[in-house]
Fold this protein.
Amino acid sequence: MILLKTNEEIELIRDSARLLGKTLAEVGRHIQPGVTTAYLDRIGEQFIRDNGAIPLCKGYEGFPSAFCISVNDVVVHGIPSDNFFIKEGDNVSLDCVIELNGYVSDSAYTFTCGETSPEMQRLLKVTKEALYIGLEKCKAGNRVGDIGHAVQQHCEKNGYSVVRELCGHGVGFKMHESPNVPNYGVPGTGPLLKEGLVIAVEPMVCMGSKNVVFSREDGWTCRTKDGKPAAHFEHTVAIGANGPDILTTFDFIENNK
Ligand code: CO
């Protein structure tokens, strides 16, 4: 069932989403060569709890930590580890879901550690562009397939591929609500977007082929099959009558707010 949110509920999700934007920026500031992904996770979890929120990934279907931290060929769902040291040139995706006052937001950002290659920079740029191009379609009267098609087109036109196994989703009362929001699709198909629907749009984009494999050891870590890098950006957005109302924000990361 697709649940719509009232204006009051959207304002409460916006509060949650704003804190999440600050959280990603806070953790992002600590990315440097030699830090472990578990260290970043601890900083982030403390920040979330200090601000009165709950990290929802921790304990979700057995996921062990507050953040998914996915480096280079790990597309999503990387598990933070005390044995994983970030190095110069890595791409580091931080993905987090929080609940504040009962309302849930979900966002991800792919950072770089220090100087990185032009190829990596272009992957991150195109993936973020694809997110915003998808968000442009988040308007009442459009359909879920319009979002996926827009994301897919932009990525493929730039020589990249989009992951099929994982999707965006409804969000706000819980981490995962209906509908699914794939990063591929056919315009004019899929569930109708109505005012008050809140979804997470989250392109997962590969430099090489779209095929991914899930770790047989931990059941979570999702890597590209060809070992090439991938990137992931995600916003929580409310469908508006005239366009997207983007609730999470990268402002604290990009504009040093
Ligand atoms: Co999500």
About this structure: Residues 219 and 238 are 31 Å apart (CA to CA).
